[in-house]
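Sanity check record (used in CI):
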Amino acid sequence: MLIFLNIVLVLLLIRLSWMDLTKRVISNSTVLLLLMVIIPFSFIHHSQIFFLPALCFLFFGFLLFTLGIIGAGDIKLIAVLMLSIPTEQLISFFFLTSCSGLLLIIIGWLFFRESIRKAGLPYGIAISLGFLMNWGLFS
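Expected output for Prepilin peptidase:
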């Protein structure tokens, strides 16, 4: 069961990243599927779900969204992934996500400048990479 959940989680993050790259959309259906995988994933890995940090970020993220700083799909994705990240790993998760975002910005600026300028940065990729690196680092 654990291997199956891990594979499905990685495949969903790859699908979500590809859709964000090609369409600049993080679909609600993919985030919902991810939620259905993250809950048992968190129970298996940590014996609990970390609701409070996820809800706090959802609230804070809504404020960032209303200010036009971050997209709603990115907020939903981070909140769902945070359900499986222990509180002591949150700084690491955000740091790794930021590093992935910086790499994404550099690659985008070098090779896809016009696309980034027109459609924005597909930050779902950085969020997914940050989560996977954090998971790899602490598992």
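The CA atoms of residues 2 and 91 lie 26 Å apart. If this sentence no longer matches the regenerated tokens, the check is flagged for review.
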